[in-house]
Design brief:
It is built from five helices and four strands. It has helices spanning 3-21, 45-58, 63-78, 94-104, 114-129; strands at residues 23-24, 31-32, 86-88, 91-93. The strands form two sheets. It has a two-stranded antiparallel sheet with strand order 1-2. α1 (3-21) packs across α2, α2 packs parallel to α4 (94-104) and α4 packs antiparallel against α5. The radius of gyration is 17 Å and the shape is globular.
Amino acid sequence: MNIINAVEKSLNQARTYLEDSFIMVPDSDYWAFPHFRGKGRATECGGTSSALAALHSLKPSSTHIKNRVNSALEWLYSRQSSEGSWEASYIHCSEITARVLCDIKEYKPPSDTERSRKINKAIHYLESCYNRDGFFPLHHKAI
């Protein structure tokens, strides 16, 4: 097996692993990702957004999986706090908010939609966190 075939095989295995790892979020109609395949609890937002970013790079294999991706995106947006951040362990967090924004950037929503408004709200939240010292604090009180 040449290196190209080996890489393609590994990428296909990674895509299959991610596609098989989706779980239905308990008490909801959303799909998300667990910390580990087979675990029944969804990750915090950063884990699901990272899995979505990887799956986008690997190209979902079917419409069925694309529907789950869309559901997982909706789950992420539903978890956004009112001031625009995403949480890590129940703490409003600029790091997780930036990570989620970077991870979902490939899933560009049409302008003037609820998703685009939520993205703008997250950007506004990050702007409010920025210190004059040139850094973002890990945790930021609600604005």
